[in-house]
Amino acid sequence: MIERTSENDVENGNVIPVTLDANFFFERAVRSLDRFQYDKALKNFRKAVEYEPENPVNHCNMAGILSEMGKYEASNDILTHVLEEVDPSMTECYFYMANNYANMESFEEAERSLITYLQEDANGEFIAESEELMELLQYELNRPAPLVRIRSREGVVEHDRARSLLEEGKFPQAVTLLEEIVQNIPDFLAAHNNLALAYFYMGRFAKAKECLGEVLAQDPGNLHALCNMAIFLQYAGDREQLAGLVRMLEATVPFHQEHVFKMATTMGILGKHRTAYGHFRRLLKDEEVGGDASLYHYCAAAASNSGLEREAVRCWQLAAKLDPESAVPRFFLSQLQLAQAEGRPLPPVSYNYQLPFQEQLKQWKNNMDSFSEEMRNNPLLRASFFWALRYGDASTKLQVTEALRWIGDDELSEVLKGVGEQEPLQESALLGLQRLIGGRPEESAIQNAVQESAVPGYKGLPEWKEDWQRVIDQTAAVMDRRYDALLKKDAELLWKQFISRLYPDVPLFRHTAGWCAALEYLTAKLHGYPLTYREAAQCYSVSVSMVSRYARRIHQVCGFPQDGAAGDILPPFTENI
């Protein structure tokens, strides 16, 4: 309300001039709002707009009053005008419009406006309110919103999607998404950690360690990265580095629930079962997660592997009570009781909350429909197949590929195609995979090198002798934990090529260790590893000259291209050792 000044005041010189501008009407509108006089407030906000039509805040205030008065359509008309005519950068208008649409029960339009706000607003002023509104819309529409990104939380939605892909065993897709995230947001450490895990699951250990190195360079105390690094070091067989890291982790007492779980599972994987048991016990005391049957299984596994059988029995009994439909607790309880009756310890128990792989295969053979259903819906099961194909022994791989013929899941086929690209399998397993996924896996570096030489007359072998296989087995055993699966399989392939080209005039291999050392040396060199004759010779306890001589023989027979690189690969044994 405009106050009038008296004539006496003017005469006395006590005149307070009144300036009728946007601020004047804005303040009057606010006072009206404080008194819940919405009509007056609207009237004054309209005047403020008339004085400053280019100021989007005045328009938004008017839209807000209209919304408070239940005039949602009129409010949205003003907000649309702001976005189209006054200031398109006022992205919060989309949030206001979403609320208006929700109040009008136009939930589809509300979702569209809210998604636009989240995807275009850089500040995220209403991010908490948006989450609440999103929950309401999800409930009303009975589906999740198709939200691709939240600009103010760049990478978060994409990271959540990548984590889901990881949990579902879709590692190649997860890697693609995570690589994009870390490229756009280099300091997104959680994405780096998950990318390292994805690489690890796919057998790309060098890339996995590189990712963790980037995390630890930015945050040397990052617990997830330290735990993952310990697991990677154990796999690589780097005992010296692993010992120091494990000592540090064992002395760490994490506080947050997520960190306690990470530490517990890491200790279990590293074989520090007693430490893992202590952390799992702490988690079981947490009311928020203490009723989880799988957590009781983890604790039971840690207890059993630590020799605490009574505690293991107690945990599995509780797990069976919490999850009566699961066969897992009952299976391990029966196995433990059988072991106790026979007076022997129970073999190491896996922390995975599922039946041992061989046990599952036995059950599925009798019920293929159940297997297909389980395979499609259980990401953990798909992940276990992935691992079995990559790291299982020949017998396991054969059983897995046989089982996979029962289904034709496109998604699984994609994963298996990735396996084939990363690591050539045993011929029989590869045949099974090719039947399932069609086409041929990409050839490895060794295959390419051999084919470049294009020796005529190459053909398969009608027989395979024990002493030939002995070289493969011994090389793989010595290379284990120092090289990834791809190099080991390439060593095997190189040896088979060598034998094939000698056949039928294959000599008797008297010095198996020497041939193994030469095989490892050549394979490492072809992959660009800086291995010397001396290092290879020490690994197999043979002479340097023997490694050099045998490596040259393999190189000559396989007929690798004789370019300048050959001189680097096969120097005289007295040089560069």
TrEMBL record:
<protein>
    <submittedName>
        <fullName>Tetratricopeptide repeat protein</fullName>
    </submittedName>
</protein>
<dbReference type="Pfam" id="PF14559">
    <property type="entry name" value="TPR_19"/>
</dbReference>
<keyword id="KW-0677">Repeat</keyword>
<dbReference type="InterPro" id="IPR051685">
    <property type="entry name" value="Ycf3/AcsC/BcsC/TPR_MFPF"/>
</dbReference>
<feature type="repeat" description="TPR">
    <location>
        <begin position="189"/>
        <end position="222"/>
    </location>
</feature>
<dbReference type="InterPro" id="IPR019734">
    <property type="entry name" value="TPR_rpt"/>
</dbReference>
<keyword id="KW-0802">TPR repeat</keyword>
<feature type="repeat" description="TPR">
    <location>
        <begin position="22"/>
        <end position="55"/>
    </location>
</feature>
<dbReference type="InterPro" id="IPR011990">
    <property type="entry name" value="TPR-like_helical_dom_sf"/>
</dbReference>
